[in-house]
Design a protein that fits this description.
Transpos_ISL3; Nucleotidyltransferase, domain 5; single chain; alpha/beta; two-stranded antiparallel ribbon; 7 strands
Length: 439
């Protein structure tokens, strides 16, 4: 369907008028010099905000709106960005325009969850123009701390809790690495060969792992089915058809009231090695002996290697994980490490005490925690504690407040997605527009 719209063209009779002629405009449908209606322009603008150039052009074509990628990018660049309103709680973080070379700062209004600026200029300049900021959430970078202290002295600085925990983890990793000999000693003491344990009594019903042998379980199951159907008065032929078993097998099961009679041959079958291996204490399955004999004949049998020495990063994960979330083996491993090394035992206690400060928002107890750390010979943790004192007010606020930079980190992830969707070709003006616009 094609709609033809006819409008009138007027001629201006005023000699001084620069517009000799002008066309009649239809409110809400046409604009001077426009090739798209306002509705279509808004739709294309929304597509451009979400997908930008080529992807947006492909989607617009599927939706019946013809627009080249250059048109969509032009619509995006000409979008009028409204300035942010008063910002009370501000989040600050940086992201890489070119990793390792060029970085920019992202400002986020944590109350509205919207990015309000992508500034390459110093943060202090932005803060000086927004005296209404009351809370600043940041990481522990000294540059941001100094800018906030200089340009916004009225604002309370909040050190992000995740960054505090990450800094603590790095200090604990250095501590674990410096006590690597404790991990090695614990591992060697645990896995050194000891006196053999007296073997259990042999039982042909169980395999080498103490579980019922597969053939035993199969015979018990097959014996149970015919016996139940016989009590219902079924014939042997009918039972054979219903259970898909051989007739003679069904007859053998039906003549045996006790399944143990069928298991005698299975559990008491003898080989030349039976007496020898049972004298040695072996109580497992014959198939295990057969497999080892086969390897011996081939000359490929080897002793099982000892478990690998736990790496410092694994021990670090055990220390930094909540105790209730550790698996049983991990909890045992951590317990052995703490028993073997008093320094690591003290480090575990300090980590868990710091976790209590974070989860219960007890920032006022920070000084007490630092004093406890200073009582032990743990250089990396002492250095971490001294760093907390240099930024004490922000750290106490971060441990006591519910505000954090989690939203800012999420916006940084969104920025990375926008950059990669443009294959790194988006210029700063286009990137800034897509960051600040939010559908």
């Amino acid at each position: 369907m094609v709609i033809v719209v006819l409008t009138r063209r007027f001629k201006c009779l005023t000699a001084e008028c620069s517009s000799v002629t002008f066309a009649e405009q239809i409110p809400g449908l046409t604009r001077p010099h426009a090739r798209y209606t306002p509705v279509l322009r808004d739709l294309l603008g929304s597509v451009a905000q979400a997908l930008a150039g080529r992807p947006g052009a492909r989607l617009a074509r599927r939706l019946g709106m013809t627009a080249a990628k250059d048109i969509l990018l032009r619509l995006l660049r000409t979008t009028v960005l409204t300035g942010p309103g008063p910002v009370r709680v501000l989040g600050i973080d940086d992201f890489a325009l070119l990793k390792g070379h060029t970085y920019a700062t992202l400002l986020v209004d944590l109350e509205t969850r919207r990015p309000i600026g992508r500034e390459a200029a110093p943060v202090a300049r932005w803060l000086a123009g927004h005296p209404e900021v009351q809370i600043i959430c940041r990481d522990r970078a000294s540059a941001y701390a100094e800018a906030a202290r200089t340009a916004a002295p009225q604002a309370v600085q909040v050190a992000d809790a995740w960054h505090l925990w990450n800094n603590l983890a790095k200090a604990v990793e250095k501590t674990v690495t410096s006590h690597d000999d404790c991990l090695r000693t614990t591992h060697q003491a645990k896995h050194q060969p000891g006196d053999p344990q007296p073997p259990a009594e042999p039982d042909g019903m169980l395999d080498v792992r103490g579980r019922p042998r597969q053939i035993v379980a199969t015979i018990r199951e097959r014996h149970r089915g015919p016996q139940e159907l016989l009590t219902q008065g079924r014939s042997l032929r009918g039972i054979s058809r219903d259970l898909d078993l051989d007739y003679y097998a069904v007859r053998r099961y039906s003549r045996t009231a006790n399944v143990d009679e069928l298991l005698v041959k299975v559990t008491q079958r003898r080989t030349l090695l039976d007496d020898y291996v049972r004298d040695q204490g072996f109580s497992g399955d014959r198939s295990v002996v057969n497999s080892h004999v086969r390897l011996l004949k081939q000359g490929t049998i080897t002793a099982p290697p000892p478990p690998a020495l736990p790496k410092p990063r694994r021990a670090l994960r055990w220390i930094m994980t909540r105790p209730e979330r550790l698996r049983s083996k991990e909890a045992v491993g951590l317990k052995e490490i703490r028993a073997a090394c008093p320094e690591l035992d003290a480090a575990v206690g300090h980590v868990r005490a710091f976790a209590v400060l974070m989860h219960e928002h007890r920032g006022e107890d920070l000084n007490e925690w630092i004093e406890q750390v200073r009582q032990h010979d743990l250089p990396a943790l002492r250095q971490f504690a001294n760093g907390l004192l240099h930024d004490r007010d922000a750290v106490v606020a971060g441990l006591s407040s519910t505000w954090s930079s989690g939203q800012v980190e999420g916006q940084v992830t969104r920025v990375k997605l926008i950059k990669r969707a443009g294959y790194g070709r988006a210029k700063l003006d286009l990137l800034r527009t897509r960051i600040l616009l939010r559908l």
